[in-house]
UniProtKB/TrEMBL annotation:
GO terms for MF: formylglycine-generating oxidase activity
Pfam families: FGE-sulfatase
Region (Disordered): 1-22
Protein name: SUMF1/EgtB/PvdO family nonheme iron enzyme
Domain spans labelled Sulfatase-modifying factor enzyme-like: 78-354
Domain of life: Bacteria
Matching InterPro entries: CTDL_fold, Sulfatase_Mod_Factor_Kinase, SUMF_dom, SUMF_sf
Length: 362
């Protein structure tokens, strides 16, 4: 029996994205099958906690590191030059989860940098893989975590749950097969590449001569010049009656009306960009940052070009994803912080890059 979402399509039509006019039904049904089943899948933590509701993490088990390709990349990055300068970093609404350390608000000064307008797409990542033969960590583990209603896999390929009932560990899920082995990238060239670990993102960056944004760079970019606001466009999620980001509408995790047009990932240029011309800094997929995560870091962060703690267990992720809902952690805000272990990969986690080697002004 094939286990797949009622929203999903059979093999050969692998695009379980939801558009206006499609009628979603009973999205919790698939995940309920797995409630209470604990997984022995390699490398996955199985205990539920708030940090895994957004994106589950692998445990300490590891696969051997893949060599990172040399700097030979020939892929186009459409980016913008941000001038840097001062900004107030952190949550001025005091609405973050206590363990996330979104405060105190503190002044940060940044040097100029260039940042991608969008997350790295499947097309860009496919170019990287084609030129280097790179094999991602999810492919080497042999599995990754997929949001339950989007799974396109046979029952035997669904190994168990990953921290939350709505995260299924699916054998064969990876960037090429984002919803499981019965899915592929047809019509998804312009969607963000997902199921990529922090190490995978660094490998891509090393090949393309770019870098992951620091957490401070990411937040500066996401704010788009709007000081002290909740979102890149203002303070209201659906400001002016418009959808500005791909998140969750309905009752999480039972029912998603997908009123914003998308159940899972959306093309990277969906919705209006922020004032800096950057698309989907919040919603759609979480984005890896360079920094190690420490919830107390803002109390001691350096004021100029902060780089994060020197060591840690997990790397910062920012921006929230298509799973974000106001009834849960509300981590789709520009100040929201979360983290995942460097070897983790999920169907709602990607990255965008920056470029810092700017020529001095003439
Ligand atoms: Ca959505």
């Amino acid at each position: 029996m094939a286990l797949r979402s009622k929203l999903g399509k059979p093999r050969g039509v692998p695009r379980p994205v939801l558009r206006h006019g499609d009628a979603p039904r009973a999205q919790g049904a698939v995940s309920l099958i797995f409630l209470g089943r604990q997984s022995a899948a390699r490398g996955f933590a199985v205990t539920f906690d708030a940090s895994t509701c957004c994106a589950p993490r692998r445990g300490a088990d590891n696969v051997p590191a893949a060599p990172h390709p040399a700097l030979t990349g020939r892929v186009q990055h459409d980016d913008v030059l941000l001038p840097g300068g001062h900004f107030a970093m952190g949550d001025s609404f005091d609405e973050g989860l206590p363990g996330d350390g979104e405060g105190p608000v503190h002044e940060v000064e940044l040097s100029p940098f260039r940042i991608d307008r969008t997350c790295v797409t499947n097309e860009q990542f496919a170019t990287f893989v084609a030129e280097t033969g790179y094999v991602t960590e999810a492919e080497r583990f042999g599995n990754s975590s997929v949001f339950a209603p989007a799974v396109l896999a046979g029952t035997s390929d669904v190994i168990g749950t990953a921290g939350s009932a709505w995260w299924l560990i699916v054998r064969g899920a990876c960037w090429r097969h984002p919803f499981g082995p019965q899915s592929d990238l047809t019509d998804m060239a312009d969607h963000p590449a997902v199921h990529l670990s922090h190490s995978d993102a660094l490998a891509y960056c090393g090949w393309s001569g770019r870098a992951l944004p620091t957490e401070a760079e990411w937040e500066f970019a996401a704010r788009g010049g709007l000081a002290g606001r909740r979102f890149p466009w203002g303070d209201e999620l659906e400001q002016d009656g418009q959808h500005h980001a791909n998140v969750w509408q309905g009752t999480f995790p039972q029912y998603n009306s997908a009123a914003d047009g998308w159940l899972a990932t959306a093309p990277v240029r969906t919705y209006e960009p922020n004032a800096y011309g950057l698309y989907q800094m919040v919603g759609n997929v979480w984005e890896w940052c360079a920094d190690w995560f420490d919830p107390s870091y803002y109390r001691t962060s350096q004021a100029s070009d902060p780089q994060g703690p020197e060591t840690g267990q997990a790397r910062v992720v920012r921006g929230g994803s298509y799973l974000c809902h106001h009834s849960y952690c509300r981590r789709y805000r520009v100040a929201a912080r979360s983290a995942n272990t460097p070897n983790s990969s999920t169907g709602n986690l990607g990255f965008r890059t920056v470029f810092r080697h700017l020529a001095p002004a003439a």
